[in-house]
Specification:
alpha/beta, globular
Length: 193
């Protein structure tokens, strides 16, 4: 099955690219650094790893793509988002691939955090616009966005930019509700705290 989501790779320093797992597998060695975001109970078949050297710098973080941090699931932690931001900073001069399974929730949120960090305070809407230009189908994970907002001391502006955009984006509320319904109806699919 072909990956129908967008993938844009523009060679050059400082570029951030968001991708799905299948896209990342095809293009992972074209980047200077890679952030892999996966489920806590990720099967080896769904993992991206580098087994031969040389290889790009690689950060792997595991948490569920769930937008609610109050339901007892293993969502992103402050430490994980901080680690991703530091990794993004240490690879700011090279190309950075950020991916998760679908390339729309966790990876979009981490990429948004890194872009917002690079642009600086006051550019939260610009950071979101850049993310959406890279990955139009993005629905950034809200737990990650809230943590990034706090870590970057954006006083709610990053989370606010996402909320404002979501209030006008057709079908986005329904996508988030469908994900929440999956969590409620099949909690056994997700890793608990």
């Amino acid at each position: 099955m072909a990956d129908a989501t967008s993938f844009q790779f523009v060679p050059g320093s400082g570029n951030v690219v968001v991708a799905s797992l299948s896209q990342a597998r095809k293009h992972k060695r074209r980047f200077d650094a890679v952030i892999t975001l996966e489920d806590p109970a990720c099967r080896p078949a769904n993992q991206l790893r580098f087994h031969t050297r040389p290889a790009p710098a690689h950060l792997v973080l595991a948490f569920e793509d769930v937008d609610d941090d109050q339901i007892g699931l293993r969502v992103a932690t402050r430490e994980q988002v901080s680690t991703a931001l530091e990794f993004g900073r240490s690879h700011a001069s090279g190309s950075l691939l950020v991916h998760c399974f679908h390339g729309v929730g966790r990876s979009a949120a981490i990429a948004l955090a890194i872009i917002a960090d690079r642009l600086g305070p006051g550019a939260e809407s610009t950071a979101l616009a850049q993310l959406l230009a890279l990955r139009p189908e993005a629905t950034p994970n809200l737990v990650v966005v809230a943590l990034a907002d706090e870590l970057l001391t954006r006083s709610g502006h990053l989370a606010g930019a996402v909320a404002s955009w979501e209030s006008t984006a057709p079908g986005l509320r329904e996508k988030r509700e469908a994900r929440a319904q999956l969590v409620r109806s099949q909690p056994h699919l997700f890793s608990r705290l």
